[in-house]
Amino acid sequence: MAKQGRARKQKRDDNPLSSARLSGDKCKASSLWFRKSGAGYHLFLSFFAEQPGAVCNEGDPQQVGNDGDVASVARKGKGMSRAAKRRRKHKDPCNVDVGRSAHEDGQGAPDMTELDQSHPLVQAFESKANEWTRLRGFVEALSRPLPLTIRLRDVDATERMNELKQKLGDFSQLIGPVQYDKSIYQSRPGCSLCKSSLGKISPGLKEVIVSGSMDGLLARQELASMLPVLALSHVGALKAGAKVLDLCSSPGSKTLQALEVVCSSNRRGKVIANDINASRLESLREAVIRSGVDEELTDRVTFTNFDASEFPSPKSGKLFDCIICDVPCSGDGTIRKDKHILPMWTPATSNSLHPLQLDILRRALELVRVGGSVSYSTCSLNPIEDESVVSAALANDDRYELLDWPSELLPGFVTRRGISDWKVAFYNKDSFEGDDSDDFGQLSFYDSHIKAMENGETGSCETLWPTGKVPLKRCMRLWPQDQDTGGFFVAIIRRKR
Asked: What DSSP state is assigned to residue 318?
């Protein structure tokens, strides 16, 4: 049975998301209006339209202001009621074919299903399609359900694994191995197979997958989630016999993936699975037991309950060979499977999470041994949670080097470089009209922390902005439209001394 480390209660004095939430006497009414109006979808697209290279190829930046310090992106139709906007849209519909397949600008995700024109993200895009043309493929991908993905575990069970592959082959019209890794299976384009539709479309395939999971032969894991462990293994940091720390381990897919590598020989490796939330940690323990992985392997997992930003140094004095640092994030890259994120989206969520993410990464860097590596990852495409954190952590510390994303990893798999420049946005939650109005307020962009503070943005911190000191193009971005995946970000950092 896997071991339970001693829990140490660590409670932060502040909630990193508290400033991101609408508050005040009109909180409930404002939040309800914000959610139902679709404001979050519009602000989300407004933000990424101002971030060249973050989710689509760079183009000419929009002209949104002339003062050089702050620019605002406001919704068209200010002052018009939603009913009036609907009437105008009915009389003069936007003449843009949002449902077409994109074939340029890297936006070539397969057209799995007919685009749902009722999707609120598509509706938000249509309202300003002429200005947001670059985002078309991004929007198309995000408006479709996330394809079902499974990973065949790297376990010593050749006969049983061959039998499983044969059973999966019986459903080859629905699911099959991807071209860049035969151990990864993804639903076929056009079949509409996703996690929620599996039982309805093919009860037989669901039975095979559930059985394979219980037998420890496969993992139901999103493709993007596999990348940190694959990269750490490829650069030689994660290998048989390694001592691994998964700092923010719940729900545990990376923990189990790393365990397969660590225990791939007779060398005695181990994985520390940590999570600050006791209930999530207990769910992780149960998931490890349910995984079907042999007890001989799961015995090498130790569970700990610490604040990741204050994880204690090993009593032995021996630091970790590699650390998986998949930090808490806004999750905007998961919106294809989580419909609760965009309705309340504002940049305040990412801005508020940034200091915590930076603290966790800095602690990870202190805990890895010389020659070892850390993977920093989020399921967000917001540079404030991605390159901004990496830049702030490495800018003035030459003990570490940011490694190039290994291009040989998964041949044929499309990845994008990190970005070196981005814009920092704030949202004035009092700027919208919380009534029957389609004025969603404005995003304000500042070119420095000083300017933001001068304009009353108390949620600003200096590390949000680019430092220009770190080769951030070595990071990896995963665009949803490239391979019909979720959005993801990974940076691999090696300790030199």
From this structure: -
- Whether residue 251 is preceded by a cis peptide bond, meaning omega within 30 degrees of 0, is yes
pLDDT, tens only, 255-292: 999 999 998 877 789 999 999 999 999 999 988 888 88
Rounded Cα distance between 365 and 496, Å, is 11
The neighbour count for residue 108, using CB atoms within 10 Å, is 17
Give the whole-angstrom CA distance, residue 263 versus residue 286. 20
Domains of the chain by residue range: 1-144+224-497, 149-219
Strand-by-strand arrangement of the 70-74 sheet: 70-74, 442-446, 424-427
Interior/surface letters 251-289, b for 16+ CB within 10 angstroms, e for the rest? ebbbbbbbbbbbbbeeeebbbbbbbbeeebbeebbeebe
Residues belonging to the active site:
379
Cα distance between residue 180 and residue 409, in whole Å? 9
Predicted TM-score (pTM) of this structure: 0.84
Binding site listing for S-adenosyl-L-methionine: 275, 307, 326
- Domain 1-144+224-497 annotated CATH 3.40.50.150: yes
Query: 398: Cβ–Cβ under 8 A, 6 or more apart, which residues?
Result: 496
